[in-house]
Write a structure and sequence with these properties.
The complex is a heterotrimer of chains A (about 325), B (about 400) and C (about 100). Chain A has about 325 residues and is an alpha/beta fold. Chain A has helices at about 10, 40-50, 65-70, 90-105, 120-125, 130-140, 190-195, 210-220, 235-240, 245-255, 280-285, 295-320, 325-330; strands at about 55-60, 80-85, 115-120, 145-150, 175, 180, 200-205, 225-230, 260-265, 265-270. Chain A has 13 helices and 10 strands. Chain B starts with a strand and ends in a 6-residue tail after the last strand. Classes of the chains: A alpha/beta (about 325), B alpha/beta (about 400), C alpha+beta (about 100).
Amino acid sequence: MNTLKGHPVGLIENFDLYAPKLVDREEYFTPGHRACQGCGEALAIRLMCKALGKDTVIINATGCMQVISSLYPTTAWELPWIHVAFPNAAAVGSGVEAALKVLRRKGRIPNRDVKAVAIGGDGGTLDIGLQALSGAMERGHNMLYVCFDNEAYMNTGIQRSSATPFGASTTTAPPGVASMGNKTWKKNLPEIMAAHNISYVATACNSYPLDFMNKVKKAREIDGPAYIHCLSVCPTGWRCPSEACIKMGRLAVETGVFPLYEAEQGRYRMTVSMPENLRPIQDYIKHQGRFRHLTPEQVQSFQERTNLEYKKLLNKIEHSKSWAEMSANQG
Amino acid sequence: MGERKGMEIALAAAEAAALCRPDVVAAYPITPNTHVPEHLANIVSEGKLDAEYICVESEHSALSACMGASGAGARVFTATSSQGLLYMAEIMSIASSMRLPVVMALGNRALSGPLNIWNDHSDIMSQRDTGWISLFASHGQEVIDMIIQAFRIAEDADVLLPINVNLDGFQLTHVVEVMDFPSQSEVDAFLPAYKPFASLHPDHPCSMGTLGLPEIYSEATKAREVAIVNSRKTILKVWAEWEKAFGRRYEPVESYKMEGAQEAIMTMGSMGETAEIAIDALREKGIPVGLLKLKLWRPFPYEDVRKAAKGLKSLLVLDRAVSFGGPGGPVASEVRSSLYGETDRPAITNYIFGLGGRDVAVEDFIKMFEKMRSGDKKRSKDQYEFYGVRGE
Amino acid sequence: MKSKKWPEDWQDVNIGCIVSNPGSAREYHTGGWRAQRPICDNEKCIKCGVCYIFCPEGCIIERKDGFFEANLDYCKGCGICAHECWPFAIKMVEEG
């Protein structure tokens, strides 16, 4: 059962055995939140907050994490937190960032760095919030945006989003006699963010806590916009057992369905060592009810496209240069 | 001391906003209000205002950015019109529910379609019930004054509500007037620095914009309604102080030549200026008619309307928006509601006119007045009528 | 906030429904959701903390002796800790 067993440690993650003991013990996202059992997104938020530390303002798009954390008159947040609506976390974040900057300049708040961190789900980020996100990234706010991608509108009951993977069954793209489920390939938002020429773009997953936390720390230090796309396993919507949450994330990575990489100043690199030969996607999808209906042919085309996308990423990594390297070459 | 000078009113609105030292400005271009954010951008670029100016990619983001900034404790300002306001609609109600004192200059413009960039009041009327305080200016001086007053009112600890200052598109935004500009020190004395009731900072973490279950939503909504109803007290207090400091008087319902009037016309916005000339002409003919100018749209000044209508035989209420399939223009509906319980109340006639920039001259007011007088019997059953529409 | 009655009257609703009581979600105990509870065999535990890091609730606490323990007031019984425990020290057992 445990994906670790039978695999060399290096394949899983550069996961120092006792490293969990080194992380910030403070819980900024507290127990008592109403997330489902085994929620990968709640876990990812908890880890993100640890990496960010106290001097953070969280701007939350409407979605699971807002609903489960802010049931008036209580809150699961130890950090200052604001939620306004579904599509506008990046825009509200722009305002928070601008305010922190100007109030600090005017001496109305303490003179120290407080980071604005906007968060949203895949619906609030890839679909309805894309315009606000693009605007905020393009304008260069000193803001980190983290998308917690559970690959559908889980809060409203598992409807398809543009982050829903090929073939998955959702309540608005169900499989049937005339349909295979979701027919489209997942929108590649990290790539769209990279095209905004921001200094830092990364993918992450709740199953690789240290990798994710390192990325959050790195992004936090950037004086400008940064984007992290965190695959967050949703046992409820993916129809897998809650205890399999971490395993599903690992399999998404090991099959190449969701490789973990970062693009720093334009230079791409893999952050978790990948197996020489990717595991077959069957290993990943067979555990999830949302893929149960797929025919062998459909699985095959899922596999082929996964291989192709992975190859595209490897090419990018092989040929990419940072902006500094590019300008040095020109000079 | 202040300065008296001629300027386009949209630019004056920006100057007035700048005098209030907003910390963050977020706005998106839209005709006819574009000159407001443009001029503010100039003021910031010239180093005359220390503010973060966010060139947002939409009105939705403009108001959202204002919300974030206000939540973080900044004084914020935005400006928009028409479709822009509708694009903000999702956030309008949230702004008042979160009690964030955003100040907006709203250059009133017709709603599409057909696409029309000119003036009427259909934009603000569509957002009537979002919990914002709404002031209506009838000329440039009022635009300047009301924008400065707006920050005082919105940020008052007893109010904490967003507020829009309505100025008619083109009729006001693009007109050059000679206006008194208060000096920076005068504004500073009138408008203290913003002290937020809570703000987003790790030294005192709080959660804003929480989830309210059915067991609390009604109570939260009632609290918000009471807040806007009670804001009237603060508005009157601020206006009294304004009069003391600057000598210009503001009232929820302003009277013009109402002495001995048996009949009256009621307007809102820039039309009041033209209507005054019509009243002068009618008075010269010996007709005892006066003008009522509505300055405060929300909270609606029921008691002032009742007081102003006392003793009138008939009242002509002019609306610049339609409530499709409803009881007439939105202003007339409120006026009728105000007077329904009065035993001694005037007959009310409601004309809808001046839509989508249709020009209205002095003669039109006289004609509307005469039409009301001649047609009282016939129209007693009619709730409202379009004026000046071909094919009558 | 605890001193206030709940649900509160409209006069007592916090302005803007703001909550200035960070971490007060702790007042709500999610432990009642649980069908299974984690039991740790400290003989097998190597004190690595993997259970702590992967807990979506953040309810696993390191004791003074270095062993880890789930706070059952909050543990929803998802089973991640048992599933991820390297030396198989944690087992999920049925409640009741």
